[in-house]
Amino acid sequence: MPSAHVTVCSISLPVAERKRDVVFLLDGSDGTRSSFPAMRDFVERMVERLNVSENRDRVSVVQYSRDPEAHFYLNTYSGKEDILDTVRGLRHKGGRPLNTGAALQYVRDNVFTASSGSRSVEGVPQLLILLSGGRSSDNVDTPASSLKELGVLIFGIGSRSSDSRELQRISHEPSYALSVSDFADLPSVQQQIFSNIDTVFVEGTSTTPTTIVEGRRQRRDVVFLLDGSDGTRNGFPAMKEFVQRMVERLDIAENRDRVSVVQYSRDPEVHFYLNTYMTKEDILDGVRGLKHKGGRPLYTGAGLQYVRDNVFTASSGSRRLEGVPQILVFLSGGRSSDSVDAAASSLKELGVLTYGIGSRGSDSRELQRISFDPSYVLTVSDFSELPKVQEQLLASVQAVPIPITPTSPPVTAVYTTPRKDVVFLLDGSDGNRNSFPAMRDFVQRVVEQFNIEANRDRVSVVQYSRDAEVHFYLNSYTTKEDVLDRVRGLRHKGGRPLNTGAALQYVRDNVFTASSGSRRLEGVPQILILLSGGRSFDSVDTAASSLKELGVLTYGIGSRGSDSRELQRISYAPSYALSVSDFSELPNVQEQLLASVQDVAMPVTPTSPTLTGMCMAELHKS
Fold first, then answer.
1. Whether residue 367 sits in one domain with residue 229
2. Does residue 211 belong to any structural domain of this protein?
3. Quick one: a GO cellular component term (predicted)?
4. Is the pLDDT of residue 32 over 90?
5. Given pLDDT bands bounded at 50, 70 and 90, which one contains residue 199?
């Protein structure tokens, strides 16, 4: 179990150093013709309050009716005056019907992108301010969810003609939706919007620690999953009292801790969701009224999958997309009759911290596989002894800090031994036959510089042309000699065409996984080194984005036959793309690549505290 006493240090950036990417999406349909000047003035006043520059706040404006139209992108202007001049010159677009769903999808696919100036992969907050004067003619739910999954914080502002429920569904959460009787009243909500934007916490850059704006309080989403099968009938009152005592120690409120309780046997049953009750008394009343479910057999795998798909969701009150820790406390009194592995892995990949508590009838190995980490497992001989482990569990749950978001880069943790999971993806197509020995030698030289052990650096090699082929996984070998022997024996694969997109997706789905040796869920940096000698025959964008969203740092190295823009899109950032005239010149970029890879900071794990420079002295004292 983690220590009961954990110090979480954070710093606040001065206002001048904050960064935000802010997109305004304006309803330009026929119904807002008379209101458009007020909307335009609102944007102007908001921009005047931002700190606009290339390395600070960036702004984009999009107008829509039947179709969307970008007036300018996030990287079009880097000066405030240029943006204000363009905003003052905006003209009402006109048109009908009002397709808000299509407009949301448009900004998701065309504006919140690196090529349009979005810095989401650098951890810069992505904000969308929607002004809509009517009900949408198309469906808004799918594109709104897609934006939220991308990490975009959506603020919706409507008038009396708008659909308030639609705006709430679009917005990041219902409280982010505001209404005015007429857009002429926008000044009345301007300060509220700006205050919300101003308190968005700023992620760390690749070289600085995560920073948190003052006032951001600890919040947790806690789900209790209780074994209600026939075998726990006698132990259920003790389980219910345990949940009650845990809830009494939590800080329950809509914007603090939230709680859900699920009971299962053959089938799962939700007693209440994370957003059902917002007061401690209501939750305690719900817990006191729990009745043993009964039933057999015990399907723990199905129970885990159910909470993953139905409880840890935004519609059920989960705030995972806001970076709020997701915690599952699982109490089981027996061995599962179905497999638990897929569901447990799925919860871990979602970032859920699962604590497993079992009795003498439980399978301890099964509990360890379910739990986020073996140290998260607690056992009692009988559930009547749950009070003995309550303090230990509570201390661990309360020590969980606010984690970094899925889009924020690694955070330096000075106390961790450097570890890396490094995958080489090699172009083995027909066009690269002569260059393959040079690529193989390059991999060999780079591997020689690594500290390969099971608990240090791990290496995998994949070769591809039309299809991808794994030579060995991250957990295939645990010694440098074994890895080097295998690399020396690599043979050119051959084949065409060159499907780089499919190969990237393959390593994402089959190599950067826990079963293949990836330690991503432990916070170990995930690094992909791609060597490609030509332009891909298939699209690389979706697969490359998927790797970035997983947190993989991709380095792309190409030769004269490669497409440099394609390599930049694949790489984690354009600066991660390197090129040589021929792969025989790889030694020329080897040191540059190695220095960058070796400098990758160890990210904090979801359970480790966020460290900043202010904490260093404390570490040295302890």
1. yes
2. no
3. collagen trimer
4. yes
5. low
CA gap 463, 312 in Å, rounded: 37
Residue 226 maps to a domain:
yes
Tell whether 227 is covered by a domain: yes
User: Is 63 within a domain?
Assistant: yes
What is the predicted pLDDT for the residue at 366?
93
Query: Looking at residue 348, what is its pLDDT?
Result: 86
Per-residue pLDDT for 226 more than 90? yes
Residue 33 and residue 100 in one domain? yes
| Cβ atoms within 10 Å, residue 507 | 25
Average pLDDT, the chain: 83
List all residues 6 or more positions away from 509 whose beta carbon is below 8 Å from its beta carbon. Answer: none
437 phi/psi in degrees, rounded to 5? -55, -40
**Residue 418 DSSP label:** P
Q: What is the CA radius of gyration of the chain?
A: 26
Contact 362, 335 (CB under 8 A): yes
Query: Which H, E and C letters describe 71-111, residue by residue?
Result: EECCCCCCCHHHHHHHHHCCCCCCCCCCCHHHHHHHHHHHC
Query: How many other CB atoms are there within 10 angstroms of residue 453's CB atom?
Result: 12
Residues 390 and 434 in one domain: no
Do both 33 and 133 map to the same domain?
yes
Q: Which of 21-25, 95-99, 351-355, 602-606 has the lowest mean pLDDT?
A: 602-606
pLDDT of residue 326: 92
Residue carrying structure tokens 């801790």 = 257
- Euclidean distance between CA atoms 252 and 532, whole angstroms: 53
* pLDDT bracket for residue 401 (50, 70, 90): low
User: What domain range includes position 284?
Assistant: 221-398
Distance of alpha carbon 617 from the chain centroid: 31
Report the pLDDT value the prediction gives residue 303, as an integer from 0 to 100.
96
Is 388 in the same domain as 346?
yes
Residue with tokens 């509570």: 394
Predicted pLDDT of residue 400: 67
Q: What is the CATH number of the domain that holds 346?
A: 3.40.50.410
Total number of domains in the chain: 3
| Same domain flag for 188 and 226 | no
DSSP string, 238-249: HHHHHHHHHHHH
**The pLDDT value given to residue 9:** 33
